[in-house]
Automatic annotation (TrEMBL):
Residues 60-74, 160-179 have a biased composition (Polar residues). InterPro entries: Inh/Omp19, OM_lipoprot_Omp19_bac, Protease_inh_B-barrel_dom. It is a lipid-anchor. This is Alkaline proteinase inhibitor/ Outer membrane lipoprotein Omp19 domain-containing protein. Residues 24-88, 158-179 are annotated as: Disordered. Residues 1-20 form the signal peptide. The keyword Transcription does not apply. Residues 89-179 form the Alkaline proteinase inhibitor/ Outer membrane lipoprotein Omp19 domain. Keywords: Cell outer membrane, Lipoprotein, Membrane, Palmitate, Signal. The keyword Lipoprotein applies. Its main location: membrane. One of its GO terms (molecular function) is endopeptidase inhibitor activity.
Amino acid sequence: MNFSKSGLVAVSLAALVASGCSTSRFSSMDDQQPAPLPAAPAGQVSSNQLPPPASPGATDPSQFPTAPANTQVASLPPDGSAPAGASDLSAASVAGVWNASVSGQSCKIATPQTKFGAGFRAGPLHCPAPIDGIKSWNVAGKQLTLYDENGGSLARLYSSGGSKFDGQTSNGQPISLTR
């Protein structure tokens, strides 16, 4: 008798499939029903004031980063114009990783030149609200604007010379970026 290799493989495969279908290993499980779950607890519902939220993983205030005591943030003119001495900006001058200070709390913000929406993608790292919601950034003239996921302005900043930007968030908090 002379069998081909493919014929032998086909017969072996058919035997394996047929033996797998006739197993009785799982037949005892068909009769078992899972135990019913206990009912949800019932009772009175009360409401109390919750304490203010804490950062995930932080349990004491000493774990929160803060800006050095001698950090000063330049104030912006009340009419929204650029401060005296602010220089014109380019995307290349803003691209990179920045140390941010928002009302004395420190974090980092990445500003790569990856196109995103009407500007470039941005990535905050452990930043306080509202800066934790930054999704993009763009420059126009002398102004750097940081945007949320809906394209709303979260902060506007101006160059303070060198590698430093100062400004304020949309809710009036001082913000500065340094390298």
